[in-house]
Amino acid sequence: MSRSRARFDTAWQAALDHARQAASQFGMDIVVTRDVLGRSCILIDDRGCPLAHDDPTVVALRDAFTAATRPFTGLEPLLFGDKLFAPELYFDAEERVPVSPRQGSAGSVHSLERTVIGSDWARSVPTPSDGAPGRRDRRVALYGFKGGVGRTTATAVLARYLAGTGRCVLVVDLDLESPGVSNLLEDPAGIPRHGIVDHLIEGGVGNADGLELVARSSALPVKGNGEVWLAPAGGRPLERNGEPYDYLAKLNRIYSDLAGLNPGDRERPFAARLEEAIAACEDQVTELSRPPDVVLLDSRAGMHDIAAVTLTHLSGLALLFAVDNPSTWEGYKMLFTQWQRRPVLARELRERLRIVAAMFHSAGDAKRLPALIDRAQTLFASTLYDQLDTDEEGADDEGDELYHPPLEDDAAPHAAIPILFGNDLVGLDPLRSRDWPELPFVDAAYRTFTTTVERLLLPPHPAPESS
């Protein structure tokens, strides 16, 4: 019989409860800290009246605290102000949050969060040595440097279209700071118990087994044998038993690179942990139904760690949403320039990218799309494409063919895929009109986008042979 282990939220509640107990028992002020992994420990301010560490009451508190918070227990469950090198960094810290005030003979309780945020734009992962398609090759990232360009709606439309071709589609909501695609794919009651943030938190302490990460979409109409599955950013709290669910506390500590779980283990960067979370979602869909034919990663906008990892590590195809304005092109230039400084990474990425002309107003001006494509080609040519000299003959010094697609190349990264925009889309409320993907003006707006993306994908997994 396996030993019960606390989840992130319940472990923190247990830590606070034991801190209140300690403040009452010892009559001393308490600070409860929580590190980047969510591991907590109790600091007892015994300056001026040191506690004996082998006192039965202290030992009992340490044992009870450890049992209630494992695996989210700090390396030192109890720390004592009398022994700390700089106790004022904890007991006088301005960022402390009051939990309970001094009352009678009981001391006060404060919480103190310790979190770290990292960055992952310049890292890449090796491709499979055998050249066989891997998980990444079936993943499509949908990313926009600027928000508000219709990326999430396009994700839902694309998921439904691909499912309509008989594919099994998994949509992963990676816009963790502003989740949205879940509302287009599933009613709140159908959201799974856990989300991507839960796997990142629980996996950080080796506690990810048994998480419920995916649910089959019941809100998106799909005909035929296709399927749409959702892996949300966050899970659904269990309302009946009042179990807590603190999404923000989890979000604040997921991005850092972590040390190994055991001494001597290799470092676990954020990119690897996010890969593990997505792979776990894919595995659950496989167990519940069949292997996903395509995985849509709805990334957040801007220069963010989620976007960095999604584009450089997780996806085989990256759709870059763009509107034709200076801020969009300056933003993508910043991003491309980062990659340009690392030639190996640039060569790996550039042929996996494709511009999407988002919310494109085509009516009345036939020159708009060619103008956008021209600006996109200029950007790629000055950053990620190989540089052409006037006496260039099409190969570099090592004899390799240069990669510099011309403007008219319809298969090049700069060849923008248009999503049309109409006034009818402005008032569309997907939550009230569940048949919205079937509306004629939605089909007209997204038809070129969906059919073009389909041609860029690997074919579906072969159907299993009947016994």
TrEMBL record:
Pfam families: CbiA. One of its GO terms (molecular function) is ATP hydrolysis activity. Keywords: ATP-binding, Nucleotide-binding. It comes from the Bacteria. Residues 141-270 form the CobQ/CobB/MinD/ParA nucleotide binding domain. InterPro entries: CobQ/CobB/MinD/ParA_Nub-bd_dom (IPR002586), P-loop_NTPase (IPR027417), ParA/MinD_ATPase (IPR050625). Coiled coil: none annotated. One of its GO terms (cellular component) is cytoplasmic side of plasma membrane. One of its GO terms (biological process) is negative regulation of cell division. PANTHER family: SEPTUM SITE-DETERMINING PROTEIN MIND HOMOLOG, CHLOROPLASTIC, SEPTUM SITE-DETERMINING PROTEIN MIND HOMOLOG, CHLOROPLASTIC-RELATED. This is CobQ/CobB/MinD/ParA nucleotide binding domain-containing protein. It comes from Streptomyces longwoodensis.
